[in-house]
């Protein structure tokens, strides 16, 4: 497991803040508090963590959680290497040893018995007992745990135990306001901002359909895709179709409703 290269503050990936999230995160880091980020898909949670890791000068380990993830996938396991059995740290253990930031994306996908392994390291003990090696690691000040999930996908089966949830301070993310979002899309795609404004307008019109016809609205990520395609020469109508309409639904009726909404939003 290799961390993202440790970046300096000057090399931090571009992140446009919405409110006070940068100060809040820095404060949590200084006070050794774990952080939970909630928000819809593609709204900037992962980018924010990458930006903060660079600002704080810490290595970043990212794990995309899924329901086959085991506690050993996080802590480590013995592996056979060249006829010898050697212990190999998992990302949680490495992040603790190195004072890194560990980011568990879509943490609700992990089974509850797996998230329990996080408990001793997310309260004031800040320890990780590793039974297999007999070690008891104490997390250094620089170690930080960040988890994220999308409340939109949440159902009764997939939620965090209160005893897990209540170990984190929580920050809510949403899609940026239209002005900021157009600036983000322009910065990410290279398309002039005035040409990003109508794309953001379409995305916001599509977002309004969330809950009626759509499970999720159009993400900032998808608007960036549309703008990137336009910037590289594709006709706007084709870019909209490929990046903002097709990814949202497979249902032909919903597809044509989305196309109508997009047309109206473009005016
Ligand atoms: N505030 C922001 N500043 C800069 N870029 C942003 C911002 N918000 C979104 N983006 C852009 O949107 C893309 C998607 O964001 P990101 O990958 O962080 O989403 P996410 O919330 O982690 O999504 P998921 O939950 O699906 O993993 C980024 O790669 C970036 O181009």
TrEMBL record:
Q: What is this protein called?
A: Nitric oxide reductase NorQ protein
- Taxonomic source organism: Roseibium suaedae
What Pfam families does this protein map onto? AAA_5, CbbQ_C
Gene3D superfamilies assigned to the protein according to its UniProt record, in alphabetical order: P-loop containing nucleotide triphosphate hydrolases
Q: Which residues form the ATPase dynein-related AAA domain?
A: 34-168
Q: Where is the CbbQ/NirQ/NorQ C-terminal domain?
A: 181-263
* Keyword field: ATP-binding, Nucleotide-binding
The record's section on SUPFAM superfamilies has: P-loop containing nucleoside triphosphate hydrolases (SSF52540)
The Swiss-Prot or TrEMBL record annotates one GO molecular function as: ATP binding
The record's annotation in InterPro entries points to:
ATPase_dyneun-rel_AAA, CbbQ/NirQ/NorQ/GpvN, CbbQ_C, P-loop_NTPase
| Similarity annotation | Belongs to the CbbQ/NirQ/NorQ/GpvN family.
């Amino acid at each position: 497991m290799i961390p993202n290269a440790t970046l300096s503050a000057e090399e931090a990936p571009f992140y446009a803040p919405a409110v006070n999230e940068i100060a809040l995160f820095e404060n949590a880091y200084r006070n050794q508090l774990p952080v939970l980020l909630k928000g819809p898909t593609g709204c900037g949670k992962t980018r924010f963590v990458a930006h903060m890791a660079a600002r704080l000068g810490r290595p970043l380990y990212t794990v995309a959680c899924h329901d086959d993830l085991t506690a050993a996938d996080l802590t480590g396991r013995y592996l056979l290497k060249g006829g010898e059995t050697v212990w190999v740290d998992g990302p949680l253990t490495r992040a603790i040893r190195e004072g890194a930031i560990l980011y568990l994306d879509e943490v609700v996908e992990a089974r509850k018995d797996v998230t329990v392994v996080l408990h001793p390291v997310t309260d004031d003990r800040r320890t990780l007992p590793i039974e297999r090696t007999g070690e008891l690691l104490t997390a250094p000040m620089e170690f930080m745990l960040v988890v994220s999930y999308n409340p939109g996908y949440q159902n009764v089966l997939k939620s965090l135990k209160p005893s897990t949830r209540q170990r984190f301070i929580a920050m809510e993310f949403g899609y940026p306001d239209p002005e900021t979002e157009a600036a983000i899309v322009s910065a990410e795609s290279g398309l002039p901002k005035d040409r990003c404004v109508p794309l953001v307008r379409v995305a916001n019109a599509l977002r309004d359909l969330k809950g009626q016809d759509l499970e999720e609205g159009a993400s900032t990520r998808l608007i960036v895709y549309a703008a990137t395609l336009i910037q590289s020469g594709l006709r706007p109508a084709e870019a909209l179709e490929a990046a903002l309409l097709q990814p949202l639904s497979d249902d032909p009726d919903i597809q044509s409703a989305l196309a109508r909404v997009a047309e109206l939003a473009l005016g």
